[in-house]
Specification:
Blueprint: E1 6-10, E2 15-19, E3 23-28, E4 36-38, E5 49-54, E6 59-64, E7 71-76, E8 81-87, E9 91-92, E10 98-99, E11 103-112, E12 117-122, H1 125-128, E13 132-136, E14 140-144, E15 151-156, H2 160-165, E16 174-180, H3 190-209, H4 218-230, E17 262-263, H5 267-276, H6 280-292, E18 304-305, E19 316-317, E20 331-332, H7 344-358, H8 363-383, H9 402-421, H10 428-445, E21 447-448, E22 453-454, H11 470-473, H12 481-494, E23 495-496, E24 499-500, E25 515-516, H13 517-529, H14 533-544, E26 556-557, E27 564-565, H15 571-584
Antiparallel strand pairs: 1-2, 2-3, 3-4, 3-5, 5-12, 6-7, 7-8, 8-11, 9-10, 11-16, 13-14, 14-15, 15-16, 17-18, 19-20, 21-22, 23-24, 25-26, 26-27
Length: about 600
Amino acid sequence: MKISDYGITGNCRSSALISKNGSIDWCCLPDFDSPSVFGRLLDEDIGGCFAVRPVGDYATRQTYMNNTNILETRFTSADAEFSIYDFMPVYRTDESSYYNAPEIYRIIKVLRGTPSITIDYRPALNYARPTTGIINKTYIKHFTTEGRYESIYLYTSLPKDDVMKGNVIRPCEESFLCVAYNQKLVKMTMKRVWLEFQRTKVYWMNWANRTLSFPKYGEEIMRSSLLLKLLTYDRSGAVIAAPTTSLPETIGETRNWDYRFCWIRDASMVIKAFLHIGHINSAQRFQKFILSVSHGKQEEIQIMYGLRGERDLEEKILEHLKGFNDSPPVRIGNGAYSQKQNDIYGVLIDAIYLSFQKFPSTLDTSEELWTLVRSIVALVARHWHKPDRGIWEIRGSERHFVYSKAMSWLALDRGVKIARMLDRDFYVDEWTALAEKIREDIFTNGWDKEIGAFVQYYGSKHLDASNLLLDEIGIVEADDPRYVSTVLRTKEELCRKGFMFRYLNEDDFGVPRSSFVLCTFWLVNSLYRIGHRKEAVEIFENILKCSNHLGLLSEHIDIETGELLGNFPQAYSHLGLIQSALLLNGEEVSFENEIFRFIKP
């Protein structure tokens, strides 16, 4: 089983991972963060799956319908050919409402000959923990008989008994299967299913049509943009890091995490990406989510939240699941939510700065934002000089990480700019002085003259890919010799075969063994900005080759095999792809960029 073998479909509420052989091996209903219904990805024996299997020797090819998130898996033999269209419904119902029910449609369309298939339908509710009961009526209902009650319904135009027994079926020209979390109130017919298909197709194509086009890497930008939209939780505007949990960063190790949550750290990056591809409404909705989870004057801010703003993300291990390719543990929840990471303040206040620049707001909203700005600055003043866990969520000792200090500087810098925007000049001198104090501290304690680079944390000799962002943050210029040297030394130390590691010093779990996709895009950007443009393009195009047959990327890459590792598909890897692709198109995407285009060329 390979992570790269999967495609994804979804509807801004939940998603399903479907193998290139037509098996749904991961799906959580009704929401991204719900317990799994199909979880074969994390346990081949008991996890559960929903597969359509051809009888005989068939070649397969998996693609997306043009400019949509509808997945087509085509099966071809000498005598027959058929396709499965997988989608989850999403479409506009009126000017302000959307329909995105927690259900998966599978349309089987015969294109040639008379194929024979079997259906392997084995739901395993609630992470495959409880015993499951079955009821066969006009639908097939699976439900838990102990513990937390869950149920799902299967509707199909195929013979239900043959479906359940795995008998050979010869589908007619058009057939359907639909897994629904809720019992359907409309009669399920082929006509109804095609209507849902067409509505969903139109939704995605309209969204794609509003996305700006670019002369270079246009297809990659479009696919990444569609994925990013798919992983948006429509009900709150949050964007999840990935739709999976516990896909390992390295096979056989224990770096397995649940990523079905929203990291505030990436807020500014998400907003910029949506703005640069022409989706101001999506950017504004995510910005509102960020602000909605930050309430109370000088309240401590978490690094991550649940899809609805939940604060308690208690981490647990599911001992009964073997893990992907026998790589336990399988975790749900994420204990990093309680960590102290000082860089979060810079991320949040930068998002507010963007809000004041780009989004219209009422007087009361502006006053609320200004209150939040002053609260964040107060928090920075209280915490910037303290050690923290850093951007990589180290679970061991706290350190004085350079990136955390730089982001604290960013919070003050943006605070000053916001104060000037709002004619609150009496804050400017005080905040400017504190910003300069932080900057001097970084240049005194974070720069290592012997190494010729900004280091990972004060007093260390280790390098860290996050320092490639110092130019984007604005604390140094791209032509500053210290930054140029940091980029080149960091590349020399952390880049292997064109792939970047976050760091290579030992952490709580040993020495990292797989590269971090986002960091490779950071390297592309930093090389481009210091004038090494040919090399930047080469590294960018090399990592594009590691995306799977659908153009999807995970969080990590095995540098020896090029195989995708870690949770998949990873929203922030694709955010990094968009950012680098825009830069190579001549579109500057720095932390402070005044130029945004909203008219489709």
